[in-house]
Design brief:
Length: about 600
């Protein structure tokens, strides 16, 4: 046996009116939408006429406020009231041939009025003829319908809502005016509001971005001024957005501050010129977080709450079209205004890089533009790749500093890849553009320096090692470029850590010092740092001939300290003591030499 569903009307109305929409103020939107649709329907039927929408507030002492919302649209006959108004889920618009021209389609919007009022009263007169009727609906799902005297009432519909104690707020003049302006700012029919004393035509002036988007590019400054005054956005630029897909028309304002990826962006999205909402992030590609959009769409499908779009093919196509235009803007910048593009990337670099690591197309677009610090200066990746066949990266800042000193002398340039996303970006670059990527570290890099044949230098090396014995540093003699660099100190990560621990130990209290000692013990085995003396340097060549052991030791120690400083290694107390002792000796020797010179 077949049974029909039963519907608990009270529950249904409660569900639709109180739980579908996120905010009671949407009743203004639903009223406005019905008024606009009714005018559209009357136009289709009669041709041109003077459309009008008026919201009139009555606020009297001792009474709850009353709103009368009037449109001079197509109206409803008695039969249509039963069929469309009083049948939940039935909409005249969905069954109309011109359904695409209407804003509504679900047949539930009017129920949102129950969020702010216990009763909906609607007086209407149809353009199709017949007497006017009054429909009064209660939130418990009952209604009455009364046929009125034909006393010359104009064609159109008036909805009357009386506020409840708790919804008074939505019936304040300023509140109502702002809500109407918010939803109806770009609607093509005049919308008026009054409370008897105050009066506003809320959409008297069209915002300039519409005309700009439609091709009037001369209004760019006006759009920027509008963004500043109305949206509080000091936009860096404005990008027109147009597209057949969905019938898109609007602008993207380039934000002047860095945004977090994934952070919700506020956009104003209008559907058939009526504001749909501001949290419509699914209309834009995920990476479009650096813009704020003002956008009208004609042919996308809203959800029943009208607070989002359906995720369908039309939305996908529109999103792609918008993405293509934002990409186009970035490409255009790269070609005609690289300075601006650089500033854009610098401002939004973290989210842009984050996205580039995941999205190959976006990466391709910007790959050559990413700027890195290299041992040959700050450089765009594209420029680096054009100059150096192998991408050499260092992932540790200390190592970068050590290698940077010698790399360029060998015609190399190393990329400082120590910041977030650097390594994945370089990997992607290498794989997408077929380049060799090599991770270098200071130790292996030092191995490539040319070893000097040990013959005859063992004694020299042993004496130099003795001079640095207390410092945990071994000496080797090599030849390398640049010849102006007398010595290169290479310290591995563990050794650096040990250095840091020792530096901390010197200022630590007893308990903490003990802890640091234990910690340091684990690294005892790798204590040796390496000082590479450069035999290409005249000073090192002269050093081979110094016989005075005290002078020899001092000179080696000073080379060590100098290499320490050049490599940006932290100075421990040992190095500081060497520096000060060494300087005193140098001064003493200098003075003595000067003195001897004077005597001669
Ligand atoms: N101001 C009006 N003038 C003429 N007809 C109206 C008016 N308001 C409502 N109606 C009729 O009542 C029906 C139901 O309206 P309701 O607002 O509940 O839903 P809808 O506008 O059809 O769809 P949606 O739920 O998407 O808003 C409409 O389809 C229309 O036929």
């Amino acid at each position: 046996m077949e049974h029909a569903f039963k519907v608990d009307l009270r529950g249904m109305i409660d569900l639709l009116s109180n739980h579908l929409y996120s905010d009671p103020s949407v009743f203004v939107r639903e009223l406005l939408q019905n008024g606009v649709d009714a005018i559209t329907a009357r136009r289709a039927r009669e041709g041109a006429f003077e459309p009008a929408i008026l919201a009139r507030l009555h606020r009297r002492e001792g009474e709850l406020p009353l709103l009368e919302f009037r449109d001079n649209g197509v109206g409803l006959t008695e039969a249509e009231v039963h069929e469309f108004l009083a049948t939940i889920g039935r909409s005249s618009k969905r069954i109309s041939e011109a359904r695409d021209t209407f804003l509504g389609q679900f047949g539930i919007g009017l129920l949102s009025c129950f969020m702010v009022s216990g009763e909906i009263e609607l007086v209407t007169r149809s353009a199709a003829g017949g007497p006017p009727v009054r429909w009064r609906a209660q939130a418990d799902g009952t209604y009455t319908l009364e046929v009125l005297e034909d006393d010359g009432l104009d064609i159109g519909t008036t909805v009357r809502l009386r506020a409840r104690e708790d919804t008074d707020f939505y019936f304040e003049y300023g509140e109502l005016r702002d809500a109407l302006a918010n939803y109806g700012r770009i609607l093509p029919f005049p919308i008026h509001v009054t409370d008897g004393e105050q009066y506003d035509h809320v959409n008297a002036v069209l915002p300039p971005w519409l005309a700009f988007a439609a091709g009037d590019e001369g209004r760019r400054e006006e759009v920027l001024a509008y963004a500043r005054a109305e949206l509080n956005v000091e936009a860096l630029d404005v990008i027109p957005l147009r597209g057949e897909e969905g019938g898109l028309l609007g602008v993207a304002l380039v934000l002047p501050y860095a945004t977090q990826r994934g952070s919700r962006q506020w956009h104003s999205v209008y559907l058939k010129r009526m504001l749909l909402g501001s949290d419509l992030s699914n209309l834009l590609p995920e990476w479009a977080f650096f813009v704020r959009c003002l956008l009208n769409v004609e042919r996308l499908h809203p959800t029943a709450s009208r607070e989002a779009f359906y995720e369908d093919d039309a939305l996908k196509a529109a999103r792609e079209a918008l993405g293509a235009q934002l990409r186009g803007y970035i490409e255009g910048l790269a070609a005609r205004d690289p300075g601006r593009l650089e500033a854009l990337i610098a401002l939004h670099h973290l989210p842009i890089k984050a996205l580039a690591t995941e999205d190959d197309d976006f990466f391709r677009l910007l790959a050559h533009e990413f700027t890195f610090e290299t041992s040959t200066g700050r450089m765009k990746l594209g420029e680096y790749a054009a100059r150096f066949p192998v991408l050499r990266m260092v992932t540790n800042l200390d190592q970068f500093r050590q290698i940077a000193q010698v790399a360029s002398a060998y015609g190399h340039s190393v990329i400082n890849a120590v910041y977030t996303y650097d390594v994945p970006l370089l990997r992607k670059y290498a794989s997408l553009f077929g380049r060799e990527l090599e991770e270098v570290d200071a130790q292996t890099y030092a191995l490539s320096l040319e070893d000097v044949a040990a013959g005859g230098l063992e004694d020299f090396t042993a004496r130099a090692n003795a001079a640095l014995a207390t410092l945990g540093c071994e000496v080797s003699v090599k030849r390398f470029e640049p010849a102006e660099l007398p010595a290169l100190l290479i310290v591995t990560n563990e050794q650096r850590l040990l250095g840091d621990i020792e530096a901390a130990r010197e200022v630590a209290d007893e308990l903490f010092a003990e802890f640091l000692d234990d910690y340091a013990a684990e690294y005892e085995l790798v204590r040796v740092a390496r000082l590479h003396l450069n035999l290409n340097h005249p000073l090192v060549q002269d050093l081979l001939h110094v016989r005075d052991e005290a002078v020899f030791a001092r000179l080696v120690q000073m080379l060590y300290v100098q290499a320490h400083l050049l490599g940006h290694h932290p100075m421990r107390s040992e190095e500081l003591a060497l520096l000060s002792g060494g300087l005193s000796d140098m001064m003493r020797w200098g003075l003595r030499a000067a003195h001897l010179g004077a005597l001669n």
